[in-house]
TrEMBL record:
Domain PIN: 5-111
UniProt cross-references to Pfam families, sorted A to Z: PIN_3 (PF13470), VapC50_C (PF26343)
Superkingdom in the source lineage: Bacteria
GO molecular function: hydrolase activity; metal ion binding; nuclease activity
Protein name: Uncharacterized protein
Domain VapC50 C-terminal: residue ranges: 129-180
InterPro entries in UniProt: PIN_dom, VapC50_C
Keyword hit for Nuclease: yes
Record keywords, A-Z: Hydrolase, Magnesium, Metal-binding, Nuclease
């Protein structure tokens, strides 16, 4: 049974984590969603942190992301924003998109700005990506391994292994998921 999740900009920013999260959506375990505004935030941060990456390359990545996951873009959520309360007003658009898309989970590394007390009324919970991937691992570890292996298989220069992907997941703040996903990765 597929459930809907909304990926926040901070989990789409790290390359390997983004790749694994998108590949997890492609396995059919989840229906991943995001908005143009979430992507704007992600790409703005990418451009600031990596000015050496051409704007055309970032635009191509955006296009590839949107093509990789059918029906990923949430629209029509904007009118909900003013009625929502969160510790950081700049995060209300994320909750609004989650509500609009029927998401059960917001995957974010920024849990303090998505308190249970505000999300519970909408039947939504915020999960750190490490907890989220572990939930999927317990649901269907084979498909999680497939997503990690597919990420490694896509690396060309230099080529990568599932263990390399897991090392990068640890660096992205997912030590538990990386350990579980890498246990039988090679």
């Amino acid at each position: 049974m597929t459930f809907t999740v909304l990926y926040d900009a901070n989990v789409l920013y790290p390359n390997v984590l983004r790749d694994v999260l998108i590949r997890l959506a492609q396995t059919g375990l989840v229906h991943a969603r995001w908005t143009d505004r979430i992507l704007d935030e992600m790409f703005e941060n990418s451009g600031e942190d990596r000015p050496d990456i051409p704007a055309a390359a970032l635009a191509k990545l955006r296009e590839l992301m949107n093509r990789a996951v059918p029906d990923c873009l949430v629209t029509g959520y904007e009118r909900l924003i003013p009625a929502l309360t969160l510790p950081d007003e700049d995060d209300r658009h994320v909750l609004a998109a989650a509500i609009r898309s029927g998401a059960q989970v917001i995957v974010t590394a920024n849990l303090r700005d998505f308190p249970d007390s505000e999300l519970a009324q909408f039947g939504i919970e915020a999960k750190h990506p490490d907890e989220f991937v572990m939930d999927l691992f317990h649901l269907d570890g084979v498909r999680v391994h497939q997503a990690v292996s597919a990420t490694a298989a896509a690396w060309r220069n230099p080529p990568g292994t599932p263990a390399d992907v897991c090392d990068r997941l640890v660096a992205a703040g997912l030590p538990i998921s990386a350990a579980a996903s890498g246990a039988d990765a090679e």
